[in-house]
Amino acid sequence: MKQPLIKDLQEQVSRRFEQIPAYVPIEPFEVIAERVGRSPEQIIKLDANENPYGLAPQAKKALADLRWGNIYPDPESRALRQAIAAYMGVPVEHIVAGAGADELIDLILRVILRPNDSVLVAPPTFGMYAFDARINGGQALEIPRNRDFSLNLEEMRRVVRDNKPSAILLASPNNPDGGMLTPLELEEILGWGILVVLDEAYIEFSDGGQLGEQASQIHQPLKRDNLVVLRTFSKWAGLAGLRVGFGVFPQWMLPVLWKVKQPYNVSVAASAAAIASLQDLTCLIERVQKIRSERVRLYQLLAQIDWLEPIPSQANFILCRVKGRSAKAVKAELMKKGIFVRYFDTPLLQNFIRVSVGLPQHHDVLFQALKEMEEEHL
Hints:
Blueprint: H1 2-17, H2 29-36, E1 44-46, H3 57-64, H4 78-88, E2 95-98, H5 100-112, E3 118-121, H6 128-135, E4 139-142, H7 153-163, E5 167-171, H8 183-190, E6 195-199, E7 227-232, E8 245-248, H9 254-260, H10 268-278, H11 281-303, E9 308-310, E10 317-322, H12 327-336, E11 339-343, E12 352-356, H13 360-376
Parallel strand pairs: 1-11, 3-4, 3-5, 5-6, 6-7
Antiparallel strand pairs: 2-8, 7-8, 9-10, 10-12, 11-12
Helix pairs in contact: 3-10, 4-10, 5-6
Subunit structure: Homodimer.
Cofactor: pyridoxal 5'-phosphate
Pathway: Amino-acid biosynthesis; L-histidine biosynthesis; L-histidine from 5-phospho-alpha-D-ribose 1-diphosphate: step 7/9
């Protein structure tokens, strides 16, 4: 009796997920180092938009002094949410913390999607939006961006009218091109009456204030019941390996989010490091400013390579159109030299590479490698 039941389950699971493309994450230092026969210290990792400066000093100290690692964390992340509220000037009751913004994207879609409901996304963009929609039983309606990576608002408006998706998921700055959503664009989209999930993972690197505060829409969910704004500590605070982020939500969403959320989703270590980071803002602001300055220099270096066309960015990465040669081959050749950049094997990005902003010496080595490839006519 047991064998047919498990066989039926196997077939059901296979049918449910066989058409969903897997999300391809970036591999860690030790894995890529072993593949190319180098030590992790010899790797120049410019493929995942990580902060090259690492944790702030106070965050390191908080982890070194960590107590109660044997005790479950606060299911409401109260201390963390209070620290975020004080930093952002947002009421604490509107904040939900998560294991990175990724968990919150999944949580939102788990809450709003019924079987075969849809969300609207604008590729090329962060692949987790479509991925999470599909694994939560929904569909992703994809309206490609224009050649300059701006939104095709006319087509998006038509799809919202005709298909009535449950939400639109947008990033500002957008990943992978680093372009910003303008206030007028956001206002128009909000006017369509659809839930908008705005991912501000890279907003701190924009030119709108010391940490992007002038460009952020973080206070708008208090006024707009169809807007959610997500943030993360992964990029600007260098906590990518600890997984901690948060969202600011309209009032109506909060009761169900608290009901559905995993109770111990933010670890003691992640919470301690994030709180300490908010107490070390002088250091982090200085690092963000260095990354912004180095982004300008990196753009100038990439623009000197005849077969690369860098795209202006407001994030901590630069997308480059590769002209007259294979972007995949460029990535492979750089990898042989211990330099890792991001190549997206997707129809909209097959002739692009994305380069994260690293340390100045990283960019010097990258530039020299690209010049050598230019001379070798790869």
